[in-house]
Design a protein that fits this description.
It is globular and about 55 Å long. Helices cover 70% and strands 1% of the residues. Helix 11 packs antiparallel against helix 14 and helix 14 runs antiparallel to helix 15. The protein has a domain of 114 residues. It comes from Nitrosospira lacus. One of its GO terms (biological process) is farnesyl diphosphate metabolic process.
Length: 346
């Protein structure tokens, strides 16, 4: 990547404008991968913004998503295509951060072109796979409301979806850190990528179970229909809060699956050399906070109420960060912390 400090400053200026919380988290990463991860986040969020701009027809959103994706499949950026995306989408943004991101898209792509060939290829791979999940949301769930509710057909379909939207990020992360950290040279990239995929899937399943009520109102039921049928339920039944007791066995099955994935993520994390404490912390925090969230999801009486936001409180976030900063380098102590969380989930 270019050594010009202005490129670093430009990227971090955009990140601060778009997501201060992600920017603060990003700073825990080693300097060698910080900018690559930050720019990749901006590209992923831009693709998500294109797919989620519901004031634009689905067909148009798919067109613009593929138009954006095409920039990572070509040697040259089609600046006219990017300007078309901006002109069509910026006026419809309700969130100022999303509007700023789209306005700065050309700057982001110019920064991307300053990266090494290897880093560009890794980002190209991510931006070829990740949009599949967004495309799946647009095509698999044709409705935008509870009255047009559609469910996934199989557990395999759910697994594929979680790979597209998060599992592939674990694979990308592995490839990127192994390329830039001498301490990671001993890793088998293929083997660790598989574990990284499980890590990402666990985080996404956590998001799915905690956001189930809001997704249902947007026409999306990520719980596979056969699992609901085993409990004597139809997707529309989950719109009724009184269905929660009947839904609990299905919910617990999905929670256990998330925990299994997160446990592989924890093994992945503990395989990071203790000398790479920044990378360890960057992995420990989302796993432990996902576990804390799953604990609350498992017992939440209002899980099917879209007005209820089930998540770990800020005090828990600060506690997790404080404990791991002190213990993260010690594998046995850190793992005991994860085991305590895991044992209290289901």
């Amino acid at each position: 990547m270019s050594s010009d400090p202005t490129t670093h400053e430009l990227l971090h200026g955009i990140l601060k404008q778009v997501s201060r919380s992600f920017y603060l988290t990003l700073n825990v990463l080693p300097a060698g991968v910080r900018d690559q991860m930050g720019l990749s986040y901006l590209f992923a969020r831009a693709a998500d913004t294109i797919a989620d701009t519901d004031l634009i027809d689905r067909g148009q959103r798919l067109k613009y998503l593929n138009q954006f994706r095409a920039q990572f499949r070509s040697a040259e950026i089609d600046w006219q295509a990017i300007q078309e995306i901006q002109a069509a989408l910026i006026p419809h943004q309700k969130d100022s951060a999303e509007s700023i991101l789209l306005q700065r898209l050309e700057d982001c792509l110019k920064l991307y072109k300053t990266y090494s060939t290897g880093d560009q290829e890794r980002i190209q791979w991510l931006m070829d796979v990740l949009p599949n999940g967004m495309e799946m949301d647009l095509t698999r769930f044709p409705g935008e409301s509870a009255g047009q509710l559609t469910a996934l057909s199989t557990l395999d379909e759910l697994d594929q979806y979680t790979y597209y939207v998060a599992g592939c990020v674990g694979e990308f992360w592995t490839r990127m850190v192994c390329a830039h950290s001498p301490e990671m040279a001993r890793w088998d990239v293929t083997e660790m990528s598989v574990m990284g995929v499980r890590f990402g899937k666990g985080l996404q399943l956590t998001n799915i179970v905690k956001d189930i009520a809001r997704d249902l109102r947007n026409g999306r039921c990520y719980v596979p229909e056969p699992l609901l049928q085993e409990a004597g339920l139809q997707p529309a039944d989950l719109l009724n809060e009184d269905s929660l007791p009947k839904f609990r066995p299905v919910l617990n099955r999905l929670i256990r699956l998330a925990v299994e994935h997160l446990n592989e993520g924890w093994k992945y994390t503990m395989a990071i050399p203790a000398s790479e404490i920044r990378q360890r912390l960057a992995c420990m925090w989302p796993i432990l906070l996902a576990g804390e969230t799953l604990k609350r999801v498992a017992i939440a009486p209002g899980l099917l109420n879209p007005a209820v936001n089930v998540k770990a409180p800020r005090s828990t976030v600060y506690r997790v960060m404080a404990i791991t900063i002190l213990t993260g380098a010690n594998e046995s102590v850190a793992t005991a912390c994860w085991n305590r969380v895991r044992e209290h989930i289901v």
